[in-house]
Amino acid sequence: MTPARRARTLLGLAAASAALVALAACSSGAPAASDSAEGGDEYGLLTAGTLTVATEGTYRPFSFHEDGSGDLVGYDVELAEAVAEKLGLEVEFQETQWDAIFAGLDAGRFDVIANQVSINPEREEQYLFSEPYTVSPGVIVVNEGDSSISSFDDLAGKTTAQSLTSNWYQLAQESGANVEAVEGWAQAVSLLQQGRVDATINDKLTFLDYVNTTPDAAIEVAAETDDPSLSALTFTKDKQALVDAVNGALAELREEGVLAELGEKYFGADVSE
Question: What CDD domains is this protein classified in (predicted)?
């Protein structure tokens, strides 16, 4: 072998070794630090390497500040952090009031909304959604041990406490209940525990959060609706690649039991299915 030929061979071996090292790094599972900082271009992110997430920050237990002014925490916050980690991205939260959150997404101020956005036909016309990560049926809540109500038909002639503007108000009326108007869940459950109404209808998440934070509350679920509300991460229509990647991350988190653990932490139950 001539000196020139030997030199080219050695250079070729060195290049091949470097390529193998790079390939091994790419196949190791967790993204390299440089990937986390610069990755995600294929998703059309607002900032390369960062998933910018809109959430209210005042919506307990989904996104709120510990002790009112501490770190931003909550079910949706931890879920967004887990998804971003799976994608090898940093995460940045932008706290936004609910009334402005969709306008902000439309204006390109965020990549995604993580704030218990319910999927409905009107929103599906305007936005893309991830696979649902929260499933919550409507429930009839009664005082513990009350066996007189076990279905929505049993509400006929009973008195329930409901907010006038909620869809639960309409459901109570359609079920034949006499409805006592209240300002919200806190007042409704107070009237129930005082025995001034027979029941109240709300979503199951609200009930679970209440009994999780008020363990001595002597109330229980008497019946559930058959059409649960589904909540998902929300994107503009041009983010299909990001939605596909997020769905892959959610599937892994579900398989690994992370979604169930988050539900247990904040609601005392898995609310992801």
Answer: PBP2_Ngo0372_TcyA (cd13711)
